[in-house]
Specification:
The chain is α/β, with parallel strands linked by helices. The chain is about 30% helix and about 25% strand. Strands 5, 6, 7, 8, 9, 15 and 16 form a seven-stranded mixed sheet that branches. Strands 12-11-10-13-14 form a five-stranded parallel sheet.
């Protein structure tokens, strides 16, 4: 693959200078624009959003993850994977995207973003971009990507949710949860959302048929049985959560971060993995980005069946605050960044 340097050379980017609290390690700097390969597209970033892998990479905790991300300092300096923006330059082999197109997609490459989207420009493989639906903002489009694809894979492909399925979403008011509630409804399911008191009406407004207030009720002790449980919080051991599944029901454990600390989350994940080995009723979901998923997401956004609730939009220069907001684990929908 030929790697060429883009013609104009620099841009503003939020550079991660070490591991730690976002306000101490994320600095806006003038850096070189990333090089663009034959199959790549350079996008003028109009919006991006924050996901769990971003804040985990920024804090560098748990330390064991630094074995992969860089022991002393992060190998990847610019974080962020979700993107919506305007095409600036295309690689020599890209024939179906043109400069000036409005696109959305992801720089996600299985672990972290290379080169990253918390910047004025990013470079993304062409097959990880599609046309942005005209009826959504750049912020909504960007914020839909990782959370929406994760929710789509969980509901449609892993959970095989369809008309009449009874689905419970734990963590229904967060980034993945809000989109999962709407996708499950679009697939015809009866949906129960678990959230705190202040978010119950919000979760209902997304289409949930029933809500459970986790501050007063433990859903694992509830009467109903569910065909699919998407657990974005994992504040109960997976063996306990499984007790409210139907005999053929499916538990989808999907959290390492937003309850009880990262180590606790990793341990619960390990227990779920053990359970998954001996059972077809437990399956993980892994976000992958390709045009099939992006097109499916775009169709849901275009039809209005899925709307992207944005809790707060930050400017690129305030990316550290956006990441800190996610670290609080109580975002209501998505946290967006305008570049
Ligand atoms: N599998 C994948 O590829 C993949 C991709 C992306 C994300 N994820 C995982 O998905 C999980 C959710 O991500 P996210 O972006 O949705 O996180 P998030 O936006 O930070 O989730 C915040 C939400 O969690 C809720 N919450 C916190 N404690 C809760 C509790 N005890 N019970 C119920 N809800 C609770 C909060 O609701 P209240 O404010 O009402 O408390 C808030 O709305 C993360 O753990 C992440 O690791 C996985």
């Amino acid at each position: 693959m030929t790697i060429t340097k883009s013609t104009t050379s620099t841009m503003k980017a939020v550079v991660q200078v070490g591991y730690g609290p976002p306000d101490q390690v994320l600095k806006m700097q003038e850096v070189d624009r990333p090089p663009i390969g034959d199959d790549n597209v350079m996008v003028r970033v109009r919006a991006t959003s924050v996901n769990t892998p971003d804040w985990i990479a920024v804090t560098g905790i748990p330390y064991i993850l630094r074995l992969q991300s860089g022991l002393r300092r992060p190998k990847t300096q610019v974080r962020g994977t979700d993107v919506a923006g305007v095409v600036e330059v295309v690689g020599t082999k890209v024939t179906d995207i043109r400069p000036g197109d409005e696109v959305f997609g992801s720089a996600w490459a299985g672990s972290q973003a290379t080169p990253g989207t918390f910047a004025e420009f990013t470079v993304v493989p062409a097959n990880q971009l599609v046309a942005k639906p005209l009826n959504v903002t750049f912020e909504e489009a960007a914020a839909s990507v990782m959370s929406g694809i994760t929710a789509l894979i969980a509901m449609r492909d892993v959970g095989k949710v369809g008309p009449g399925s009874h689905v419970l979403i734990n963590g229904a008011s967060g980034g993945v949860g809000t989109l999962a509630v709407q996708i499950a409804k679009a697939l015809g399911a009866e949906v129960t959302g678990v959230a705190s008191t202040k978010n119950l009406e919000f979760v209902r407004s997304l289409g949930a048929d029933h809500v459970i207030d986790y501050t007063t009720e433990d859903f694992t002790l509830s009467e109903p049985r569910y065909d699919v449980i998407l657990d974005n919080v994992m504040n109960h051991p997976p063996s306990v959560t499984s007790k409210v599944l139907t005999p053929t029901g499916m538990l989808i454990p999907n959290s390492i971060g937003n309850s009880g600390g990262l180590m606790a989350g990793l341990l619960r994940g390990a227990r779920a993995a053990l359970l998954a080995r001996g059972s077809t009723n437990v399956q993980f979901v892994k976000c992958e980005v390709n045009r099939e998923y992006l097109d499916a997401l775009a169709t849901l956004l275009r039809s209005g069946e899925v709307k992207v609730p944005i809790d707060k939009t930050y400017q690129l220069g305030d990316t550290a605050d956006a990441v800190a907001h996610m670290l609080g684990h109580h975002a209501r929908g998505k946290v967006a960044i305008r570049a």
